[in-house]
UniProtKB/TrEMBL annotation:
Protein name: glycine dehydrogenase (aminomethyl-transferring)
Phylogenetic classification of the source organism: Archaea, Methanobacteriati, Methanobacteriota, Stenosarchaea group, Halobacteria
Gene it is expressed from: gcvPB
Sequence segments annotated as region (Disordered): 1-66
Molecular function, one GO term: pyridoxal phosphate binding
Top EC class for this record: oxidoreductase
Keywords of the record: Oxidoreductase, Pyridoxal phosphate
Domain Aminotransferase class V per the UniProt entry, residue ranges: 164-291
Catalysed conversion reaction: N(6)-[(R)-lipoyl]-L-lysyl-[glycine-cleavage complex H protein] + glycine + H(+) = N(6)-[(R)-S(8)-aminomethyldihydrolipoyl]-L-lysyl-[glycine-cleavage complex H protein] + CO2
Bias (Basic and acidic residues): 1-13
Length: 489
């Protein structure tokens, strides 16, 4: 098949890694679904304790041997791209390589505990939760941490709800949340969903918070400022102490979006910078493969003044030190997710932090920053803002960033995040992470440069060497067909 492909391919990559993604049929169709391969009507019992209209008499199931099944999934995996295939420099998402030992720990039979079991029968689980709360608190400089929110966005919502409850408890009616224009879209959505008016803060010339604009934006209506530090351009907010003072003097709280914590691990703490509440994207910073939208976890840390508002149930060591217990914090905002959130993601985070320790975490952030700076220094695309930390935003210049990104797939590189933040024209937001070695970074740079030198026609036609070519992204998002039946219809 690859000979065929060479014959039809006039845009074979000339530099960087040559890449061919698996394709399993010649006619443009993909590996067939199991139901298309072979299926059998299987009778099902009628003893299910469910209403009749929710049950059926027979079910069509694939009738395949084990080798047929194993090959099907192996073929599908070859048509996919993930952190085990090659570098995944998707800026802001921190798609770091996930060490296999964290998977082994999460797969231990003892990790799979039913969340409804009594506290006395799951003391080990509660101890792990309490320890992880402690680890995260120490890493972020926060006094108390809830593990419940199931994603970064859910952590934001939880944190802003806590801020709202705090102001309300003080009899303080505040209606606005201030957010820089470089922030992630979830920040704006969070503030709106929590019932606040969003005040968008324009960035200064250097890409950071504009102190003058901040002073003008905050006041007696300000409930909180939401800030990512380093921001989405990878820039550290050098004036963070002054920023904190301005917000606090106005009676507002400072919210830290923890998505970029990979830049600061073991080196600087949001709590020390003056932040009152933060989320951790543990799936970004502390292992867990999260491509394709999940699963994740977004624990929230708060200072002492806000601890009483944390979601319920919370976990703590019993006062007499004899064991661990679940309890409802005094002024809890309630539940934001079932039980303790996405538990096995939290187990992975615990294993990762415990294994690396203080020195390992500090080393990870140092390498993440070094790698981003090395890669940026090697590529031909312009990087307008700096000095940056764990990620940088290059500009594709005259090229369309999304087309350039599609072409990178042909070189075996997962594309960077594109067209965001909007401060940079045709943005290529790139985060190589700490796990890539020099050879891998050199290959990445070669791929970027090869794409930078290509013409629009080539970029328009890309990708050519992947299992799926251009996907209709709008229809995929707006009219998803998520079941075999929907596809049949
Ligand atoms: C990923 C991200 C979020 C949202 O986190 P999810 O875990 O994807 O919900 C928020 N802010 C920034 C800067 C991010 O990169």
């Amino acid at each position: 098949m690859s000979e065929d492909r060479d014959a039809t391919d006039d845009h074979a990559p000339e530099a960087g890694t040559r890449y061919d993604q698996a394709r399993w049929t010649d006619d443009g169709q993909y590996e067939p679904l199991l139901a298309e391969k072979d299926s059998t009507e299987v009778a099902v019992g009628d003893d299910a304790p469910l209403p009749d209209d929710l049950t059926r008499d027979s079910l069509e199931l694939p009738d395949l041997s084990e080798p047929e099944l194993a090959r099907h999934y192996t073929r599908l995996s070859g048509m996919n791209y993930g952190v085990d295939s090659g570098p995944f420099p998707l800026g802001s998402c921190t798609m770091k390589y996930n060490p296999k030992f964290t998977e082994r720990v999460a797969a231990l039979p003892a990790a799979a505990v039913h969340p409804d079991r009594s506290a006395t029968s799951v003391q080990g689980t509660l101890e792990l939760q309490a320890e992880l709360q402690g680890y995260l608190g120490r890493i972020g400089g926060m006094d108390a941490v809830t593990l419940q929110p199931p994603a970064g966005a859910a952590g934001e919502f939880t944190g802003i709800r806590i801020a709202a409850a705090y102001h309300e408890a003080n009899g303080d009616d505040r209606t606005e949340v201030v957010i820089p224009d470089s922030a992630h879209g979830t920040n704006f959505a969070t503030a709106a969903m929590a019932g606040f008016d969003v005040v968008e803060l324009p960035s200064a010339e250097d890409g950071r918070v504009d102190i003058g604009a901040l002073e003008a934006a905050v006041g007696e209506d300000t409930a909180a400022l939401m800030l990512t530090n380093p921001n989405t351009l990878g820039l550290f907010e050098r004036d963070i102490e002054e920023i904190a003072e301005i917000v606090h003097d106005a009676g507002g709280l400072l919210y830290y979006d923890g998505a970029n914590l990979n830049a600061l691990l073991g080196r600087a703490r949001p709590g020390d910078m003056g932040f009152d509440v933060m989320h951790y994207n543990v799936h970004k910073t502390f292992a867990t493969p999260h491509g394709g939208g999940g699963p994740g976890a977004g624990p929230v840390g708060v200072t002492e003044e806000l601890a009483a508002f944390l979601p319920t149930p919370h976990v703590r060591q019993q006062a007499d030190g004899s064991g661990y217990e679940r309890y409802e914090p005094e002024r809890s905002i309630g539940k934001v997710h079932g039980f303790s959130g996405n538990w096995l993601v939290l187990v992975r985070a615990f294993a990762y932090i415990a294994r690396l320790g203080d020195a390992g975490l500090a080393d990870a952030s140092a390498r993440a920053v070094l790698n981003a700076n090395y890669l940026a220094s090697r590529i031909d695309y312009e990087v307008p803002y700096g000095p940056f930390h764990h990620e940088f935003v290059a500009s594709a210049g005259e090229q369309d960033a999304a087309d350039a990104a599609k072409r990178m797939l042909d070189y075996g590189v997962h594309p960077p995040t594109t067209k965001w933040p909007e401060i940079v024209d045709e943005a290529l937001m790139t985060e190589p992470t700490e796990a890539e070695g020099k050879g891998s970074l050199d290959d990445l740079a070669a791929a970027f440069d090869a794409v930078a030198a290509e013409d629009d026609a080539t970029l328009d036609a890309a990708p050519e060497r992947t299992a799926a070519r251009r996907i209709d992204q709008v229809s995929a998002a707006r009219e998803p067909r998520l079941s075999w039946h929907a596809l049949e219809e």
